[in-house]
Amino acid sequence: MSSGSLLWVASPKESPFLNGSRRSFRRSSGRSAVSSSLQVAVPPLTSEQLVYGVVLRQAALVGEARRRTPPAVEVPTAPLRGHLLDEAYERCGEVCAEYAKTFYLGTLLMTPERRKAIWAIYVWCRRTDELVDGPNSSHITPAALDRWQNRLEDLFNGRPYDMYDAALSDTALKYPVDIQPFKDMIEGMRMDLRKSRYNSFDELYLYCYYVAGTVGLMSVPVMGIAPDSKAPTESVYNAALALGIANQLTNILRDVGEDFRRGRVYLPQDELARAGLSDDDIFKGKVTDRWRNFMKGQIKRARMFFDVAEKGIYELNSASRWPVLASSLLYRQILDSIEANDYNNFTKRAYVGKAKKFATLPIAYAKALLGPSR
After folding, report:
1. Which residues, at least 6 apart from 294, have a Cβ–Cβ distance to it below 8 Å?
2. Residue range 21-32: mean pLDDT, rounded
3. pTM to 2 decimals?
């Protein structure tokens, strides 16, 4: 399921839109292109190309907001105002503090307005995730997710159902937050209801975008891009997306045994087969040389996504860099822990101990202040 941390998908080096490239992926909606009397089949879009279209849209919204002159007209008012709105945000903060302690500490370094908005997004993501992973998940149906999406559309239109919704509704008024990533996260929940295996990394990539990469797209408008950043807006979004993908891949590698006991395998089936492995090997839960070699490749890919993400973190507003860097560094250490467990993710859960967590926070803070060269 989703990454559980709110912090922010570009792909590794082979991705056609990294390293400053802005190749167009426009297609005629998957139909065949016709030239004279000759019909040429257009290859279907990959998951990366489909997701990149969302990235460009989000980047355009934020880019427009950065260029826009402050409006002379009054901004629409939120459904809740005054102390009731403050209380709604405080409740979101309490949920964040209870379930994401390290991240909550990082948000305290943000400006009060940004902090509250990130709390509101976090709570919505957590509630959405719990629909399929929470205590009542066995009763969730596609119709229930449809109702949750209708509720999302209502709160974006200023009609929240409760105080948590009201906080997000107010955030959507104050920042150029688009509804599409929120809808896409719900689509990830639908995928979890109908799908328990992924034939290729292309399929898995789309799932990771839905349940975790979306969080980065939601957060960038609130985190803010540094006023002196020279980076294209879409490259910052790619980095945010990459961190979401990296976090989710890390979750998948950490939870192989746990997910299998719930009937799910999130590892690409074709890559398992090429390594001489199958679901039966996961069922046996025995660490073999084949499993070790397979896991080394999976961990390498996750780290490549973390590398892409870190380059964009330094383009964020200075007050937002520390919590995002902390999230990235802490999640990377889960991969180290999997290695330290000799790749036994069947019966051992990789985690970062409290001592390492506290040691990481000042490192992340220093990196946020000094920049990537340090």
Report:
1. 271, 272, 275, 277
2. 37
3. 0.83
